[in-house]
Amino acid sequence: MKRLTLGFVALCVCAAALAALPGCEGENKPSENGADSDEEDSDADPPDVGFADFPVGTGSGDGNPAIIYVAFDATGEVGRRAHWTHGELTVSGVFFSISPSCDTTQGVALSSTDGEVTFPLTTPEMMRLAIYPPVDAAFCSFDLTLAATTPFRLEGTLDDGRDIEVVLDLGGRLRFRPDSDHLFYRNGEIFHWLAVLDLGEFDISDIGGKLGVDSNDIRLDVIRVDAEHNTGLAGLIADRLLNAFILVNDADADGHADPDDFEAENRLATGANVNAGSAASLCMDPEEVDFGEISVVLRREQEITFCQCGVPEPVRVLSIALQSETPDKFSFVWSETLPVRLLPGECFRVMIAYEPSTAGPDAAQLVVITDAVMSGGGGLFSVPIGALVRADIEQMSLTCDQADGGVADAELHPFGQVPLGGIATATCRVGNSNAAAVYVETISLEENEGYEFSLHADAASGAWLFGSQEAVFEVDFRPRDRIRRENAIIARIRTGDDEPKERRYSLRGMGVAPELRLDPFPSYAFGNVPVGACATQLIEIANVGALFLEVASADLQDEAGGVFDLDLDPPPDTDDVDNLPASLGSEESATIALSCCPGERGSYAAMLEIRSNSLLVDPTYTYLPVTCTGVDGARRGEISPQPSPPTERATGGEAGGRL
Q1: Which pTM was predicted?
Q2: Which terminal Cβ of the chain has fewer Cβ within 10 Å, N or C?
Q3: pLDDT tens across 144-202, in order?
Q4: Which residues fall within 8 angstroms of residue 454, CB to CB, at 6 or more apart?
Q5: Domain 516-639 classified CATH 2.60.40.10?
Q6: Quick one: which of 479, 310, 291, 275 has its CA closest to 381?
């Protein structure tokens, strides 16, 4: 939208009298339905388009007066940082600043005969003012006199989902200043105007950081800007709101903003701040503050000087404010007393401080609100402020506590030996020793396919860590086999750079279990045994695993019946105590004896069955098949145990299976 630099309005001076105003530039056009000014007793009634008219002034149509119809509308509901859904304006009259004096405090004031009338802006309501001005005149400004209570209301939703309500008095008037020299009206003519609020031009994006917090900087879900809420910014918002209004000729007299209405020949005036002052200005030194790149910093300060460098009229500095999405980092150290009146060349100073509490880029604005008039700015001056805080990744720690309470290793956490199917849990910590805060973006495992390791770090991922703070999480190791497994924790941490940095911490663990070994194995053959004699073989049951092996029993399945014999307490034991059942520690063993005593010739077979918890499967059955052959030979007696041939190791098989 075209913005008007407010100041003293220059008038179009015509050689002819006011009655001959068509010779001036910036002429507003009467409606095609209006009466010709040269035609006597012209009918000034409005076209019948279904409007509800609210008279302003006492004109009755007698004397062939001019009539100005003003309708209201809004366009561009999606503004910058907000989506506006409802707006209304309550009007009680109008005011004309008459040429050539152009005194904005003295002129023609007309009241509404209906008192206060509320006009919707964002809904299509057929309502308008019917203004009966008293005489032919050119005027330098046209004001809508607003109601004393809730004169303007605007409601919508910010882009972060919070509701916003704006209720302002706008200084009691909505003033329109001509885009050209002046506006005019003449007896016998009908004018159709449209006061449009261009919501797309109502920009609050740079002050959003200060909206929506209470006195304790607590974020609010509903933001209010009125006489009691956000009062420090109400004037600034009102000024921007007024500059978003435009007055146009309603070319088709339908009361709604159409593209043709905004053509240059139909533009009449732009909204303006009634309370605007002179076209003075401020010069700022420095014009921009950059605290620079900071590694570890507790506080930096910067002095800023503002000087009056405009026209001779004084400037009143009304207020100053720091606006930032991170308001806790920026603060005032001191400022000269406000409000202050500055003549040309006079200055005032402020000192601001920056104390970073988190890593990353920071930005703020020092906003100065004055009664000076800027083009489109309404007395708003600002100084951009920037900084970049960095933390040192080397000051970040990543460790896991030792199970025995010992000192954590800086690079590796050994889970040690964990029983198969069991779980070992380590408590781990990512700590920040920087003065600046850091952001822990993610904590993950290096090898996600290493299913023996699992991570529980939801609370630590996405955490801000200030100085000396840490985030705690857990890692589980659940071994599935007896192979040493390795993995690593990866912490991705943002220290203020564009890309996160990584800290790595190694994990190691091994699954263990008791493991049964038989000797001999996997089978044993007694060979030829003379009928009437016995052959005996010692069987060693050993634990070659890391945990206790529980050997519950040894049973002999002898299909021949009586040919084979099992002795659980064989010589040279003399304690008369069976060696089974037994609990065998690592590398411990128990011995039993197996004999074959054939009573007649023939081949015989049996199965030795050992029940244990080998490989932590209980019960686990280990089998040893044995055979012997009865032959004619020596007298009945015993054959000494035969030495065992080289054997393979027996490992515990699945329950009920055979090896």
Answers
A1: 0.41
A2: N
A3: 888 766 678 888 887 777 788 888 877 677 888 776 666 766 677 888 888 888 887 77
A4: 475, 476, 478
A5: yes
A6: 310
